[in-house]
Amino acid sequence: MQAYLSGLANAAPFAVELAVKGTLWLVAIAILAAILRNASAATRHLVWSLGIAGLFAMPFLLNGLPWRIAVPIAVAPDAHRAQPSPLDDAPPALTDAGARSVRASTESLGTASGAAGSASGAAGLGLAAAPVNAFTSARFGTALLVVWLLGALLLTLRVLRSVAHVRRILANAELCEDAQLLELLDRLADRIGVRRPVSLVIAPGTPIPFTVGVRRPVIALPSGASEWTLDKQEAVLLHELAHVARFDLWTSLAAHVACAVYWLNPLVWLACRKMRIEGERACDDAVLRYGTRASDYADQLLQVVRETRNQWAPATAVAMARKSAFEGRLLAILAPGINRQRLTLRLAVPVTFGVALLALPIAAMQTGDPQSASAAATQETDSSWVAKSTDIDTKDAEPVARAQDTLPRSAVARSLSSALRDSDERVRVAAIQAIHSRSEKSVIPDLIPLLADTSLAVRRAVAEALQGMPDPRAIAALVQALRNDSDVHVRELAAQALGQIDDERAVPGLMAAFREERAAAVRRKIIWALAEIESAGAASMFVDALRDDDAEVRQYAISGVKSLEIRSAAPQLIALLRDSNADVRAYAASALGELKITDALDELMTAASDASADVRQYAISALSSLEDQRALPAFIRALRDQNVDVRRQAVSAISDVDGLQRAPRELVEALSDSDQDVRESAIHALGNIKDVSTVSLILPLARAGQPLAIREAALQALGELGGPQVEALLLELIKDPDPKIRRLAAQGLGRE
Q: Which of 314-328, 330-344, 470-484, 579-593 is predicted least confidently?
């Protein structure tokens, strides 16, 4: 029994010290992440990942550091000496340990639980002095240990449940046999630097793309992925491959373990959530770095989130578009001027070293009043080391990581600037690549003149570097390179860099270059850059580019017309509904809908029967935007379309038709559609139309045996329709085993 009490007495102070220092550590990490708010998401993700790693290292640091740093805490002398204490006659070593334990316990509880803290302090004093009080404290410690173990066990079971869910999804999945998708995966993996084999499966049981597998990565796509546009396929695969390249599956696993072990600490949950959000943003940045237009990617991401509806994404998988924190990601994608640089070794090493330096003083801290702290410092550490470790100028409280990053870089920048003038082109290229990877913007003025270098390799390297470090100072030189350089690749990179700079001063040069350019690849980048800048001065250029020979140029031109709302381009957009390229037709239909070109009604109704499913879907969406009842026949025809996305769009369009009194027969038939989303949307549409003749058809869908989402939709629709049959059903379902059904039934009865 004595050994048991002794074990708990020794473990309690260590657990309290670990909790307090773990909290201080995460606070320091949060401050550092806030200071690095202008850094790339990849850098902030590294900081939060190191924060999680530090939690696992902290117990070893507490036991392994050979020195301590005294942190004096002022205590009123009479406050703890006014009453005699049982510790007054105890041996000095026991007194010091008991006092430290009580102070740590009291500080960790905080002012909100002052009474409880006092009680804990009294119990701690008793543990050191009296067997009865020690027994009471041991029982309390045992109870606390049991609570912690139960919480950790429940969270572990939650993770195992998620793992089992993923296994079921993959068991029902099939290896992708789409040659286009597999070729795209290989090409993108090579581009992003993924050397490990990555499997691609089609999983009908998941509505959202995700990646699993720490050792053998597997990317799972929904069943309709083969019918996505090429841009959407590329964006999704790039995002998921970025997770693989960045080893996010490992950090995600570490986060789950940390939450299970430190579940009592809310800051751990916050840190894991922040790490996950920054990881998703870093992958978004990777997609944008490889040329995907921000607005297009945001639209694709929004489509994925909409398609997930309320379906559950596996917690242990790295999913592309969870709804939590989605708004912040969307704003970050669309915001101009955000640092989207990847994490390079040259940046990761100093950041890791700096964060590690932050951990050491936190782990070495030893609290106490000034006198005891001084004595402890004299006994346990070398006084000269303490003097060095505490002699820090705190006037400008910059974290160690920032100091490690900025101080050496100025010297490196000077060296790289000198290397730009080297006579060997290979040295100049290497220096340019180093400037690019380190994002040394201070060297940009020295970099710009090299756009006119005699070496093609140097010019290409400079154009690529300026593309990764947008700076208005480079506009004139980039325009000059765009118009005069003999190399197509240099001109492409120059145009893309001008688009990323996003400055209206580049518009005249871009327009002049477009008129002179013969290479379609360069014209694409120019019109893309003009669309990114969104200058009204480029309106005429977008209209002219709608007639370009290259399909991609026409697509970017449509995006420019749409973003600038150039309604005068309506005739050209309508003509593009008959374009030979399906993507152009789909873009044109989308633009006509967003601009609400009512004159396009007849042509859009024709496009709703296009050979391409994407064109049909966008045409139905555009017709819905026009809010014209004459489009109803096109919606009804689309309800029988072979493509599920077209059927979903048609149901949504019919639901939005104003003044519809009776549900079309085809909409009623959609209640038996093979796709659950179509059935669910059809139920909502019938509720919006308020056709009471459909009540008897919806009633069975609210009963047990149907999927929960279908039952919920049916109850909501029946609540809109009302009537005696509905009331009888609601009274029956108020006793349903599912709490969501009971709540919806109660709400429906409240409307009756």
A: 314-328
What is the residue whose two structure tokens read 């994490």? 343
pLDDT in tens, 156-211: 888 888 888 778 888 888 888 888 888 888 888 888 888 888 889 888 767 778 88
Of 692, 636, 684, 623, the residue nearest 662 (C-alpha): 692
Say if strands 218-221 and 199-202 run parallel, antiparallel, or are unpaired.
parallel
Q: Quick one: which of 578, 587, 514, 521 has its CA closest to 550?
A: 521
| pLDDT tens figures, 221-257 | 888 788 888 888 888 898 888 888 888 888 888 888 8
**Cα 546 off chain centre by:** 35
**CA–CA distance, 516 with 133 (Å, rounded to integer):** 90
Residues whose CB is less than 8 angstroms from the CB of residue 380 and which lie 6 or more positions away in sequence, other chains included: 67, 68, 366
Domain boundaries, the chain: 2-150+344-391, 165-334, 420-564, 566-658, 671-752
Cβ contact 532:564 at 8 Å: no
CA 200 – CA 197 distance, rounded (Å): 10
Measure the CA–CA gap between 279 and 289, rounded to whole angstroms.
Answer: 15
DSSP state string for 4-68: HHHHHHHHHHHHHHHHHHHHHHHHHHHHHHHHTTTS-HHHHHHHHHHHHHHHHHHHHHHHH-S--
**CB burial string 166-204: b at 16+ within 10 A, e below:** beebbeebeebebeebeebbeebbeebebeeebbbbbbe
Beta bridge partners of 70: 366
The CATH code of the domain at 566-658 is 1.25.10.10
Q: Measuring CA to CA, how many Å separate 630 from each of 41, 303, 570, 624, 648?
A: 48, 27, 20, 10, 19
Inter-residue contact 203 to 172 (CB < 8 Å): yes
Give the dihedral of Cα atoms 247, 252, 255, 256; nearest 10 deg. Answer: -140
Half-sphere exposure of 521 (CA within 13 A, CB side): 9
| Packing angle, helices 676-689 and 644-655, rounded to 10 | 10
Per DSSP, the residues of 55-118 read HHHHHHHHHH-S--EEEE----HHHHHSS--GGGGS-HHHHHHHHHHHHHHHHHH-GGGHHHHH
By DSSP bridging, strand 365-368 and strand 218-221 are unpaired
Beta-bridge mates of residue 201: 175, 220
pTM for the model stands at: 0.47
| Pairing assessment for the beta strands 69-72 and 365-368 based on DSSP bridges | parallel
Cα radius of gyration rounded to whole Å, the chain = 32
Tell which CATH classification among 3.40.309.10, 1.25.10.10, 3.20.20.140, 1.10.10.10 matches the domain 420-564: 1.25.10.10
Q: Which residues pair with 368 in a beta bridge?
A: 72
- Taking the C-alpha atoms of residue 351 and residue 401, their distance in angstroms, rounded to an integer, is 5
Q: How many CB atoms lie within 10 A of CB 118?
A: 12
Domain boundaries 671-752, corresponding CATH code = 1.25.10.10
671 DSSP 8-state letter: G
Q: What are phi and psi of 210, to 5 degrees?
A: -150, 165
Question: Which residues pair with residue 211 across a beta bridge?
Answer: 219, 318
Q: What is the dihedral sign for C-alpha 704, 710, 711, 712?
A: positive
